[in-house]
Amino acid sequence: MTMSSKSFVVVGAGPAGMRAAEQLVAAGQRPIVVDEGSRHGGQIYRQPPAVLQRERSDLYGFEAARASAVLDRFEALRPQIDYRPETLAWQLETNTLQLLHAGRTRALPFDALILAPGATDRVLPFPGWTLPGVYTLGAAQVALKHQGCLIGPRVVFAGTGPLLYLVAWQYASHGARVAAVLDTARSSAKWLAAPRLLSRPAVAAKGAYFVARLRMMGVAVHGGITLLEAEGGERVTALRWQAGGTAHTTECDAIGFGHGLRSETQLADLAGCAFDYNELEQAWLPRRDAAGRSSVRGVYIAGDGAGILGADAAELSGARAALAALEDLGTAVSAPERAARIERDLQAHVTFRRGLETAFAPPPRWAVDAPDELIVCRCEEVTAGELRACVRDTGTHEMNRLKALTRIGMGRCQGRMCAPGASRLLAHAAGCELREVGRLRGQAPIKPVPIAMLHEQAPSTVVPEDQDD
Amino acid sequence: MSNSAPLLRRIAGAARESIEFELNGQRCSALEGDTVLTAVLTNAAKLRESEFAGAARAGFCLMGACQDCWVRLADGERLRACTTFVEPGMRVRTGP
Question: Is the ipTM value over 0.90, yes or no?
């Protein structure tokens, strides 16, 4: 096999995927980049449709220069990249991806696969979270960046994590009335307090800046709160919450909430990658070495899909995974100094991340406090009470068993939204540690695909009956 | 805010071509570059009703992960509203 005949495939065109592609191009390869989005950028640097002209400074704020650098670089390299937007990788088997684009599926074999699928909001729900007007923090950002819309004119932002303050500030500076910022973690002055956060002083300073600006704009910022209920019949009209034993009601037209991020890991699962429980993330993540190699030969994992480290780290881990893939396939002279430098730089992000996750820990009492009538699974409307009753009646203490018995995680989202809550409820009800309940197994297709598409593929995969004659 | 007032509020990109589509049989206006979700929710306050309680839903994650914004077109086709761009003449149904 000649050097140029190796097939390098990258899934995801966010910071990790874009930098991985760049590294592969630099080594003389022509990588295939598959992405669900209509334009490159991922979620963090999501670009609006071309007809919706927006200034980068307006879209990305402090990160505009960083966003431009990576977006423009990818754009410049487009002739050397086989870029496939609006394409879903929905199955992965025996070193072959199945791709869905424009209603048709096709197989894509690979020699090296770099998975950079990113993350979504980690959601620990509260009563009323299915009402129109209640969105994730990520959704609030997508509405603004991709569609030039606010999720409502008067918004409460709630939950915890750095995104809480960033989105609240973005909304306040785009004319929304931010009715309150409600942090389930203790103190909003935590940005400069935690020593680990000072490992990246510029980022910590930005966080402190958002809080200070919000306060100057007259926005109420509260820490150590508990979310009680989103009120409203057909749409959200108010949020009830509690702090220090006192209940409050804040009127609003919309709520953006989330409790940090969770990695997208379905493709790594289908690839057969080994997973380990990660105490910091309180989640099962694909095992990988410092370079991004998974336990499966030829499969690499980069960016937030390998554990949450943020956009800047994603650029680094994307490049590092590409270097590893090139080295493993013998398609480039190894670059040990550059690789070592990237790994060293990544370490600062790991330290910072530990600080963040400590300062913005998800509410530890969530599973204790969740009322029985709380809908945990918004696809199938399975309640906390039903999950608890199942544990009581069957003695199950494993996520996939709970899924079989209650349909939790069996809906269209395949557990993306409900798994953080359901696993915590299961662990609490069964009296065991979160790691002991395991994780929902990934299933193909990893997102809904039209049945007509599967039919179209049939002629090439089904042997005609008269073949044996 | 009344129950029927639109959910989303536009703050940018007003200078775009408008697109006419149909929402539950009513002619509505959206803008070029709108997703179906944006097109519907700048005109109304819900996208669909849940299959179990029949409660109003209006999407949740807006990034193709939660699958809570699948809507039906008049011809029966189903599509994910947050990742599909609205097209002229599209006939969207948000009710049963």
Answer: yes
